[in-house]
Amino acid sequence: MVHSFFGGSVTSLPPDPPSRLRTDQPVAIDERAAVDAVLAGDRDAFRILVDRESAAVVRACHRILGDLHEAEDAAQEAFVMAFRSLAGWRADGPFGAWLTRIAIRISLRRAQKRRDVVWIDPTDPDRPIDLPGGIDPASSSLRSERAADVRAAVARLDEPYRETVALRFFGELSLDEIATQTGRPLGTVKTHLHRGLIRLRGAIDGTAQ
Q1: What is the CA 1 to chain-centroid distance, rounded?
Q2: 107 near 99, Cβ under 8 Å?
Q3: What is the DSSP secondary structure assignment for residue 19, as one 8-state letter?
Q4: Which of 64, 60, 51 has its CA nearest to residue 5?
Q5: How many C-beta atoms surround the C-beta of residue 105 within 10 A?
Q6: Which of 109, 135, 168, 197 has its Cβ near the most Cβ atoms within 10 Å?
Q7: CA dihedral in degrees (135, 136, 137, 138; nearest 10)?
Q8: Do the Cβ atoms of 203 and 153 come closer than 8 Å?
């Protein structure tokens, strides 16, 4: 899973100094302190951040890609990119929100490169279709095809609508968090979301201009 990050591209780093953060601390760590420790050369501090954020990041990638292995690969790529860009984290919002934005972009880029995407329900990715006698293959197929259309339409949205819609519904970021991560005013984010959903509906219904 994403822990392979530590056996991959970062193995070329110099030996780690003694960790300045206790890895047995509760989840509620000081993110700024952890990032500063990583920038100072403490790789174990980044492991703390990976351990805390990996499940949410993989879940966000899974909702877009619909395949667990590919979602884990995308999450891996997101952590590598975050590690390389760590100095650019401004700490003006949660580290997890910043990381999710990176993961969403990577996942959308991957989704754009393939057609056979299976939809994952954002509210419950593992929920089957409960019908008498078990799952109805026809209903499941229709649901997947409809959802694939939705996801394809999201991928075709122009920016900033695509990112805003994806961050809200795939990344589960609040509007305030989206505003912080994108550097856009809250009112602008609300407008982008509203217009993005209108464009999305039009694309799906075939009424887009």
Answers
A1: 15
A2: no
A3: P
A4: 51
A5: 17
A6: 168
A7: -160
A8: yes
* Polymer length in residues for the chain: 209
Task: Kindly state the average pLDDT of the residues 12-35.
Answer: 52
Assigned CATH topology for domain 2-205: Rna Polymerase Sigma Factor; Chain: A (1.10.1740)
Residues 6+ apart with CB under 8 A from 34: 21, 45, 46, 48, 49, 95
Say if CB 94 and CB 177 are below 8 A apart. yes
**Going along the chain, which residue ranges are E strands?**
none
Predicted pLDDT at 141? 44
Query: Which residue carries 């329900």 as its tokens?
Result: 121
CA distance 201 to 207: 8
Read off the pLDDT of residues 155-200 as tens digits, 9 standing for 90 and up. 888 889 989 998 988 888 999 999 998 889 999 999 999 999 898 8
User: CA-CA distance, 78 to 100, in Å (whole number)?
Assistant: 8
Place of tokens 């822990």: 3
What's at 184, amino acid-wise? Answer: R
Residue type at position 63: R
